[in-house]
Amino acid sequence: xxPTAYCEMQEIEDSHWWFVARRQILSALIKQSCxxxxxxxxxxxxxGGNLLMLSKLGELKAFEMNPSALAMATKKGVKDVxxxxxxxxxQMPYSGEKFDLICLFDVLExxxxxxxxxxxxxxxxxxxxxxxxxxxxxxxxxxPHDQFLQxxxxxxxxxxxxxxxxxxxxxxxxxxxxxxxxxxxxxxRLFDRFIxxxxxxxxxxxxxxxxxxxxxxxxxxxxxxxxCNLPIGLSLVCVLSL
Length: 242
What we know:
Layout: H1 3-12, H2 17-33, E1 38-43, H3 51-55, E2 58-64, H4 67-75, E3 81-85, E4 99-105, H5 114-121, E5 125-136, H6 144-148, H7 157-166, E6 170-177, H8 182-194, H9 208-219, E7 235-241
Parallel strand pairs: 1-2, 1-4, 2-3, 4-5
Antiparallel strand pairs: 5-7, 6-7
């Protein structure tokens, strides 16, 4: 990603409504999909926003492709977490190790060869292991926000499922999420595209009150996803297996 994006992320990911609520949603989904006491690999840990959450669910190792982001993640000081540099798909660390859960949270869109990455990750799964990944949805929404974050693509549900199956993995379930706020965010993204396309997109946190309200609305989806697949949203989540 753009170095500015990493700095912004590091500053706000512990309190911004999107990061906080997404962790709550993903934690609930992991607990539903996987057994306790997991051996976990986080691919593309960024500045470390998910490390504490994942470390509470099992033994955690992670790697990151950007040295500056890895340094920020290391400074968080999450105990008993192994961190190192790596690159998908050709320079992935922990070769020969097997994991019960592999997490790619908004990572695949940053990787040019996404299919080869998924194929490589098959070798890291235990026989009953799961991959849980999230990606930005709706290809037609690709715009300045994605360019600032250096996304190669957004995904449609059908394209993501096809990519997964072509990699030799099985789709256990897939759902949109960030659905309740989708109309509001859609307006914001279209405004960025057509009105403010020359302005750098900043991941700024809103006022404390608005941030709390948005967090509660988004986080409510943690009660929906365990029992149903949502029909539309800003993001997609998939649970994969061998």
